[in-house]
Predict the 3D structure of the following.
Amino acid sequence: MIHATRAAVRQWLDVLLHIHDSPRRTAAAYALGVFFGFSPFLGLHTALALTCAFIFNLNRVAVLVGVYSNLPWILAPYYTLTTMMGAELLGTHVPKAFATQLEDLFALSLLHSEFWRRLAILLRPLLWPYTVGSLIGAVVLAMLAYRLALAFVIARRRHPYFLRRAPTGSHGSSRPSGRKQPDQKRD
């Protein structure tokens, strides 16, 4: 009974996580995660990425690893640089005395509505530069992530350790030997 339950759970996890994809699909899943992780949809990135992973039947683990590539200490510099790039592309200028207004703003309590009202007024001119800049940055990073992930997954699957443990059957795309078999497609 325990073996049957384990087998059922493994099968369910394989379907849910979709971990036996080809290297291209795994790299695409990671790149999709990177795109959403660095997109302007801050706060919604996990839900949007997983929704797309389910719609396109992609590896959910690779998508989540990509989403969480955007680490907390990267957030501020990344969004600052991409907003500046967006402002340059759109010809938008940073409001005068922006730094002073920002300092004054943080003298207020985060719990008061005045803080949030003034923050919205201060950041409103930067909304489009933020959106455009971070979308461009997310696309560039996703393309780079795809190339790197594809090279990594292919190299990893060619490693002797993984060749010995290669899955077989309808879900497996790895082959036990490094040579192409006549009836199999190359990934």
